[in-house]
């Protein structure tokens, strides 16, 4: 039979929801929280579920074993990305996360390794520890602006590494430009935006963005993104030329790499990757942490008790305390499991392949559903609940080995994200209590768990109450800030 012939040729395609002519399954893909629908299809159709959209076929992968086999073991095949047209038009064409596999990607990741590899990261620990008190001080002064403090805390470190930060233009403007550029990115790579067609993109437009045609969107998005990437870079370049640059990834690359336009362009994107890769993701993760602490006071108390016992109240937690704070570490693992920062990641195969008898033609887009893996009830019971004990007492598989991706496209910032998020969480727990806010009538406001749509999984804006644990804690923050001011703020590794 024809079917048998196709099978023999290995051209058996995986099952999936029934497509309609022309639009395929587009009408069945929801406009938000696509990962939940994709998990349902995985539960119905198995290891690989095929979904048709106009102009593309997607294979959904919802199980850890399958993602591991394809993205890790066969990483050399599943190492490219789909062509994200709208992201490309909006200024992100040459960005690292959207690059197809090839020499440019390899070069970019090689450069990133110099700033994000194990040795470099260890050399940042003192800088990260030094910065935490400033973050806590901001939180103390204006606790209701916690989201902004999360962003600034992460951005300060990222900007320092990428551009040398202090003395390099105005950081407020750079952070604001970066935030806007990331909103353009997030909107244009959101699965609903590219998986269906370009029309649903309108749903993801940030509120400050005037309603406009696609051409206008792309034009404006590109302008924002170019400016966000170029302004800090050329500032550093100017300073390198005049011999006044603080040591940073950019200054080091400008002095050690070839000075042709192509290489320079790659450096701008690598630096911009360090900057934009860090602040939004960290803000999202810390926001979910904040919601978790408000909703699960017993978890918070237990984590605080561990810190009080191990670290004491005379100093703040530091990066090096990680091994001796297993419960706080489990809280962090649970944050990245409960609401993973990036719920799904797309890859394309660079050659034909086969998985358990199913044919996977070159160029097929595979969507790894990290959220589904981390909400698999057979692995993580009561998956919607926040239960750190599953990691430290029950031996559940690590969530961080999923939440940062796999293989050749694994998050290059993973080694800095872990200690930075960890020490931030530990320091908040050491000095503040997070609880549910009350409205003017005194009624408790239940923080929701609704996520925004877009590439990065942020909770919708929410209110909580953040108050210092004690007057001792306030004093500790004040003393730590004074101490930090006496410490060097250079990154030695880039001083040459
Ligand atoms: C909370 C922190 C973070 C989380 C949860 C996170 C998560 C991820 C994930 C899931 C991916 C896709 C991986 C894949 O396809 O397998 C990714 C890619 C990426 N991340 Fe991160 N990330 C974080 C922080 C950072 C930081 C600090 C940097 C700074 C260098 C960074 C830079 C990047 C870049 C450049 C890519 C694209 C890599 C590529 O496509 O080759 N991220 N990240």
TrEMBL record:
Keyword terms of this UniProt record: Heme, Iron, Membrane, Metal-binding, Monooxygenase, Oxidoreductase, Signal, Transmembrane, Transmembrane helix
Record PROSITE patterns: CYTOCHROME_P450
InterPro entries: Cyt_P450, Cyt_P450_CS, Cyt_P450_E_grp-I, Cyt_P450_sf, Cytochrome_P450_fung
Annotated Gene Ontology cellular component terms: membrane
Subcellular location field: Membrane
Binding positions (heme): 411
Gene Ontology molecular function: heme binding; iron ion binding; monooxygenase activity; oxidoreductase activity, acting on paired donors, with incorporation or reduction of molecular oxygen
SUPFAM superfamilies found in the cross-reference section: Cytochrome P450 (SSF48264)
Main location per the UniProt record: membrane
Cofactor: heme
Family affiliation: Belongs to the cytochrome P450 family.
Protein name as it appears in the record: Cytochrome P450
């Amino acid at each position: 039979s024809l079917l048998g012939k196709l099978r023999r040729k290995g051209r058996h395609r995986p099952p999936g929801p029934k497509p309609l002519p022309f639009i395929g399954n587009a009408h069945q893909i929801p406009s938000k929280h696509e990962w939940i629908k994709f998990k349902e299809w995985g539960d119905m159709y198995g290891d690989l579920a095929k979904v048709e959209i106009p102009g593309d076929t997607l294979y959904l992968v919802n199980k850890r074993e399958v993602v591991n086999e394809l993205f890790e073991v066969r990483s050399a095949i599943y190492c490219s990305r789909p062509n994200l047209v709208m992201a490309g038009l909006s200024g992100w064409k040459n960005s690292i996360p959207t690059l197809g596999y090839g020499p440019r990607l390899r070069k970019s990741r090689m450069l990133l390794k110099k700033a994000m590899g194990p040795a470099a990261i260890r050399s940042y620990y003192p800088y990260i520890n030094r910065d935490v008190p400033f973050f806590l001080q901001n939180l103390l002064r204006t606790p209701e602006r916690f989201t902004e403090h999360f962003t600034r805390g992460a951005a300060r470190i990222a900007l320092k590494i990428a551009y040398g930060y202090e003395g390099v233009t105005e950081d407020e403007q750079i952070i604001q430009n970066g935030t806007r550029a990331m909103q353009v990115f997030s909107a244009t790579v959101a699965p609903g935006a590219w998986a269906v067609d370009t029309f649903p993109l309108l749903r993801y437009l940030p509120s400050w963005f005037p309603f406009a045609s696609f051409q206008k969107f792309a034009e404006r998005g590109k302008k924002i993104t170019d400016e966000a990437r170029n302004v800090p870079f050329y500032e550093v370049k100017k300073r390198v030329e005049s011999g006044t640059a603080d040591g940073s990834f950019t200054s080091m690359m400008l002095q050690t790499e070839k000075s042709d336009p192509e290489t320079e362009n790659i450096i701008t994107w690598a630096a911009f990757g360090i900057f934009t890769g860090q602040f939004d993701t960290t803000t999202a993760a810390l926001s979910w942490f904040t919601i978790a602490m408000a909703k699960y006071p017993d978890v918070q108390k237990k984590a605080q008790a561990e810190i009080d016992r191990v670290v004491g109240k005379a100093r703040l937690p530091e990066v090096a305390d990680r091994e001796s704070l297993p419960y706080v570490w489990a809280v962090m693992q649970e944050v990245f499991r409960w609401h993973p920062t990036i719920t799904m990641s797309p890859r394309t195969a660079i050659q034909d392949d086969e998985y358990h008898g199913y044919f996977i033609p070159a160029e097929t887009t595979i969507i790894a559903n990290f959220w589904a893996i981390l909400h698999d009830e057979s692995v993580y019971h009561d998956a919607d609940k926040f239960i750190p004990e599953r990691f430290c007492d029950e031996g559940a598989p690590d969530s961080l080995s999923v939440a940062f991706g796999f293989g050749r496209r694994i998050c290059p910032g993973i080694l800095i994200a872990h200690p930075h998020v960890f020490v931030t969480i530990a320091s908040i727990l050491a000095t503040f209590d997070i609880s549910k806010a009350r409205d003017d009538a005194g009624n408790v406001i239940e923080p929701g768990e609704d996520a925004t749509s877009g590439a990065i999984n942020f909770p919708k804006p929410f209110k909580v109450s953040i108050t210092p644990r004690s007057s001792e804690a306030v004093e500790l923050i004040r003393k730590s800030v004074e101490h930090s001011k006496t410490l060097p703020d250079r990154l030695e590794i880039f001083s040459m």
